[in-house]
Amino acid sequence: MQTRRLLKLVRVRSAAQAIPRDAARFTRRELREAVGWGDTQVKLHPSRLVEHEHGFFFFSCCF
Fold first, then answer.
1. Prediction pTM value
2. Which pLDDT score, from 0 to 100, does residue 63 have?
3. Segments making up each domain of the chain, as ranges
């Protein structure tokens, strides 16, 4: 259920930005805020999408 919610978020965000789904970029903070998840869930569900070949996840980071 949560993994599907994440996939929907990626689809909506990429459509809103008029970019291919595989070009959508998130920071972990953006993802946590968008779906209201904790850090463990933010790490788990993107990896599940990758396992099921629904996409690649790249998290931007600023130091």
1. 0.62
2. 43
3. 2-51
